[in-house]
């Protein structure tokens, strides 16, 4: 919270974010903060901040009822904080993966979806829908090093695809060359098999 506001704070409460919840990600920690704020009344949202891995709720003394209500909401939510679904930007930071990798592994089933969520973009009428992920699954992937194996598999698959594409292109060129040669041979054969060619030429009928 801003320094000029800290001097007015008399009501303060903190909650430590467990590593099981953040999975070692600052992006995930910030996501948890936003999730907590979303559950609070508009007037209380900015009173909750993230500082050094802790959620901090601070208000002035004359806002005790509001403070107690907000603290109750956060405390209740903290009980299930470790089961909060992981959103795309969080899983990318936790597993150190790129968006293209997330899309590819989600599409081929290696990265299982825990469902979808639809949200409205801030200040816009447009909504977006995206997949979310089970934090337990994400933790297992992180601990097992599965991402490195998937990348190696993708590299091998890409090399195989290039080999097949090169073979197919070579085969196509070979078949086209053979077809052209056969067409040329047929044309030459047809020209040499004209009946009575010499007689026409000798009699001057082609002049």
From TrEMBL:
Tell me which domain of life the UniProt entry assigns to the organism this sequence originates from: Bacteria
Region feature (Disordered): 170-193
Q: What is this protein called?
A: Mlr2029 protein
Origin organism of this chain? Rhizobium deserti
């Amino acid at each position: 919270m801003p320094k000029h506001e800290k001097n007015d704070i008399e009501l303060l409460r903190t909650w430590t974010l467990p590593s099981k919840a953040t999975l070692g990600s600052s992006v995930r920690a910030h996501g948890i903060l936003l999730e907590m704020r979303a559950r609070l009344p508009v007037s209380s949202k900015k009173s909750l901040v993230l500082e050094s891995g802790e959620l901090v709720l601070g208000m002035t003394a004359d806002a005790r009822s509001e403070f107690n209500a907000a603290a109750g909401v956060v405390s209740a939510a903290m009980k299930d904080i470790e089961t909060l679904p992981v959103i795309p930007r969080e899983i990318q930071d936790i597993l150190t993966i790129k968006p293209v990798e997330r899309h590819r592994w989600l599409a081929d089933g290696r990265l299982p979806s825990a469902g979808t969520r639809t949200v409205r973009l801030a200040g816009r009428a447009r909504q977006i829908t995206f997949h979310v992920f089970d934090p337990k699954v994400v933790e297992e992937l992180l601990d097992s090093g599965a991402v490195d194996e998937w990348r190696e598999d993708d590299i091998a698959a890409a090399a195989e695809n290039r080999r097949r594409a090169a073979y197919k292109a070579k085969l196509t060129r070979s078949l086209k060359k053979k077809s052209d040669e056969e067409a040329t041979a047929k044309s030459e054969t047809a020209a040499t098999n004209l009946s009575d060619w010499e007689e026409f030429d000798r009699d001057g009928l082609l002049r």
